[in-house]
Amino acid sequence: MTKFRSNLLVLAGALLLTAATSIHAQAQVDISASLYGQFSSQTYSAGETEAPQASIGTLVGVRRYVHPWLGYELTYSYARTDYDFSGTGAQVVQSHDQTFTADYVINMHVPVVGLRPFALAGVGATHFGPTGNTGATSNTKPAFAYGLGLDYRLLPYVGLRAQYRALVYKSPLFGSGYNTGAATSSAEPSIGVYVHF
Fold first, then answer.
1. pLDDT tens digits, 10-65
2. pLDDT tens digits for range 82-112
3. Which fold, 3-196?
4. Neighbours of 17 (CB within 10 A)
5. Pairing relation of β-strands 139-155 and 158-170?
């Protein structure tokens, strides 16, 4: 088992433990699942262009409110992305992109016309795992996350969540001929459901 997979299991266990502890303590907890679009910026360096293609991914999270307007969340997202390196003969690297974040969340305690706005900011890491026989190597980059969203409660314990999240990070270094090393960002609009405990 690779070190990254071990870390993934530890983080998944921490997510479940946080959720279980919070629920047991009668805290306000949301568990969410969403689909999101990943739209990443192109980067340029030393004659190389890295152009990530748009992709669709999944985003899951556990959010705990420690105050009516303040909370934190742990999230995991996955998307399969094609990176086109036009400066190296239009070589394409396909990658399994996995992101973990820990965010602070500020929300409006009282809904306005049924909608509860929130804002988030936090830090995390994105693991880029190339597939196929391109010679590209996997790597992990730290990331800064920020965003805005709206919750709409459909039932006492179930609601819809729409959010825009952005990630800022350095572009992946897949190895010789497959990197620019420049700072970049991803826009990730999402829509999904949450269960409130």
1. 665 565 555 555 444 456 899 999 999 999 998 887 777 888 899 999 999 999 99
2. 988 775 546 788 999 999 999 999 998 788 8
3. Porin (2.40.160)
4. 11
5. antiparallel
Domain ranges of the chain: 3-196
Q: What is the rounded distance in angstroms from the CA atom of residue 128 to the CA atom of residue 155?
A: 38
Token pair for 129: 């795992």
